[in-house]
User: Fold this.
Amino acid sequence: MIQSLYVKDFALFDELDLNFNEGLSVLIGESGSGKSLILDAISSLVGGRCSTSNIRQGKDRYILQAKFILTKNQNAKDWLTEKGIQYFGNEISISKEVSKDGKSRIFIGESLASLTLLREFGSTLCDIHNQNEQLYLLDKTNQLEFLDRHSGLDHLREEMKAAFAFFKSCKKKLADLETRDEIRKVRAEQLKFQLQELEQLKPKEGELEELEKEENLLSHGEKLFENFKTISNLLYESEESILQCFPSVLQASEKIAGIHSEFGSIYNELKDVYEQLKSIKAAVREEEEEVFFSPDRLDGVQHRIKELLRIKKKYNLSVEEVMDQIPSWKKELESIEKTEETIHTIRVEYSESLARIKKLAMDLSKARRLGLSQFEEEIQKELEILGMKGSRIQIVLRWEEDPQGELREGEKNYVLLSSGLDQAEFYFSANAGEKPRPLRKVASGGEISRIMLAIRSVMGKAHSSHKLLVFDEIDTGVSGDGAVSMADRLEKLSKDSQILVITHSQPIAAVAETHWKVEKEIREGRTFSKVHQVSNRNKPLELAKMISGKEVTQAAVEHAKVLLKRKAS
Assistant:
């Protein structure tokens, strides 16, 4: 339960400090007096929006603080323990400060918290029901959630939600991978061909340059051979070759030098020439041995050069640079092959997750149908208590057909959602003998308010969590006996839960233990809202004002006293 609320510089409140009681409390006052602002403050403290527009004019921030008693709220205590947030004496405080720049600071106990964390914790502390909840009630998705909660299917529903999220993730991954699958396959074939081609070719570093040199020699081999033959014949092979004749030249020169001393220098030069010619002979022979003419070898070299040049042109890289690409190509191919393995794994996961969500969806559907009648009966009883005898509530569950649906049953496909196969809709008939029709089409505002309270009453009995229940003008469209019935139901609910209600209904106000009067006043040209607790003595007067306005009649006061006595009895 909420024990206290402190508000500073929030909208029309400069400062407000309230201490709440157990049971049923009502906020009364004229429209626009600021009643809803108190609920806005509580809502903000349990995870609602933090609007800077609520900062009081002339101020740079607002401060909200509340203290909650957790004695009977085990869910809240378990949440705090799970998050490692300390609390003392079954009490926890929440504070929020919102600045003009949009920044906010939130504390749960002494721990700084995010808005997401506050929303989680706030859901264990408080349920706020306002006129917007009429739209919430009319939403078919929420109608299914009501049935699940009442039937105790929260765990199975969460299991289905998690399994469905995993299934959708697998489906998306598989679709993304398969979209690029053909591209990957083409690339893999390309890489395999390139690697196989290079493996067969086995190019070597510097090979092309060496082959080009060899080709040059081989392509001129015949001419080289002929010229070498000419040189060898003239230099040393024929009988009249230079080296064959040169000893005779030396012998004659030696004789001349013996007679003509001045010829000695020429003789010595000739001897040097002879030695040089012998050296040249050896060099020529060595070079001649290197040169041979082989058409087959030339064809082989030219073919090899052609292949290497083709590779060079194909990749627009040198042969060495192409060879450097081989490791990266192998790595890329391995990655593609691993992707294929991943696709296979995800296909298996997809199939398994689809089978799992189908089973969970079928289990949910069966469980819902088992709990459906009891839920309808309990709501029906509550509606009778609320003065709606003869009315009828019916919950219809359907599967939506879709040719692309994930679940195939018989000859049809059905849509699978995170909530399963079922789509629920509440049908309603206000009068006996009339066929129920969709609630969203036939129910009036007052009927929706009472149906909402009936559902909340049933849900409260099934899942009592000792949370604060806040109702903002739940009496909209309800009057007379309907208002009396609603008051009785709220009074009974308040035996197990703390309830705070904004109301303009005299019967509802009459059954409350605590009345808070909210009023506006103008001081020094500024409008302020203020709140005070109505004393028991003044309760008849305030209740009388709810039907008479400012001109309170004695009859209205007496009627109010009767209502209060009814409460006391």
